[in-house]
């Protein structure tokens, strides 16, 4: 009887791609894949270690599934990813129920590590400095719907944000070649993928480690020519590297959607300097003006940190005013977390938890009204929607996304009238809006 493996992927889309590669290695070993850990003889948890809250979630998840070694049929429990890279040997003592720990440096060696375990190797921890770079020759079993995929164009990060552990967890920035990314994109198109979401810790740094400053634009132009791909989305674009050349490339494309995810983190110069966010050539508001001057209908997502050490009430008020003036389409807000091992964790003038929570709630409330207002401006328009399936609450309604809505994070379009198949791109007329979602009906032409 074929053994089954259950894979739990925590954290970001970049982690998800790693999980998909590990799943492929498990199938090569003869495992089937199940979503039910109780029927799995091998359980793999791919962890996030970016924030302490993510580490807590990972530990809770591991301990929860570890019970299947007693109550289920689990014979192997594997924990991989950023939490392992961050805490390494400490986990050996804290989690004796785990058979194998794999840091980010060894995710792509899962098959050989498990083979060695079967041969009697008792080593439990595999970790080293992250240097590996995924290439198109590696097999990957996608977990996303057939019509959409994440395409990781680089690994690691060489930015030095004072609050962030990613360079330690993932190593320095390492770009794939343009040709190798294109090869994977062509394979995805052949599999029926219509939407490609480009990801990296910093997509706009693509090629910078190879002294190839034009690499990203060349890649985008080449991707634009792949038949079958309808939408190309650029995620995690570092603000200092967004320039007129990139924006012109996007504006001239027929497949690159008018969407940018730009983690600005703040708008006050002294806070940005304390965050180690480089020496910007223009302030955040000037950057938004530049973007909209090239692509007026660009949908913008950003992430902001409130409660960073030294953030005064006046600084926070400046941040709120900035958000109200700029009007982002999508906004993520995070309260500062002093992560051990970062220089920001040692900064003075800490902000108390109560104040941080109040600022976070206040900024989210501001964004809620902005989101509704911006969505309301689309009422009456006709736009293409990618149908993802039935609405989560009823099979009487379909659910999909506009080109200006990224998977999983930006709300949805609820289709109240008309029929379509999953994966179809259909024209809809937008009729009404909620705080983050829209209602629409499929157009009859």
List the SSEs and their pairings:
Layout: E1 4-9, H1 13-28, E2 32-34, E3 42-47, H2 52-66, H3 68-71, E4 76-81, H4 82-87, H5 89-94, E5 100-102, H6 110-118, E6 125-126, E7 148-152, E8 154-155, H7 166-170, E9 174-175, H8 178-190, E10 195-199, H9 215-223, E11 231-234, H10 244-252, E12 256-261, H11 269-274, H12 284-294, E13 299-306, H13 313-326, E14 330-335, H14 353-376, E15 382-391, E16 394-402, E17 413-417, E18 425-433, E19 438-442
Parallel strand pairs: 1-2, 1-3, 3-4, 4-5, 5-6, 7-10, 10-11, 11-12, 12-13, 13-14, 17-19
Antiparallel strand pairs: 8-9, 15-16, 15-18, 16-17, 18-19
Helix pairs in contact: 8-9, 9-10, 13-14
In words, what does this structure look like?
With 445 residues, the chain is α/β, with parallel strands linked by helices. It has 4 domains: 4-126, Rossmann fold (3-Layer(aba) Sandwich), CATH 3.40.50.12160; 144-261, Transcription Regulator spoIIAA; 264-377, Transcription Regulator spoIIAA (2-Layer Sandwich); 382-442, OB fold (Dihydrolipoamide Acetyltransferase, E2P). It has helices at residues 13-28, 52-66, 68-71, 82-87, 89-94, 110-118, 166-170, 178-190, 215-223, 244-252, 269-274, 284-294, 313-326, 353-376; strands spanning 4-9, 32-34, 42-47, 76-81, 100-102, 125-126, 148-152, 154-155, 174-175, 195-199, 231-234, 256-261, 299-306, 330-335, 382-391, 394-402, 413-417, 425-433, 438-442. Strands 2-1-3-4-5-6 form a 6-stranded parallel beta sheet, with helices on both faces. Helix 9 (215-223) runs parallel beside helix 10 (244-252) and helix 13 packs parallel to helix 14 (353-376). The longest helix has 24 residues, at 353-376.
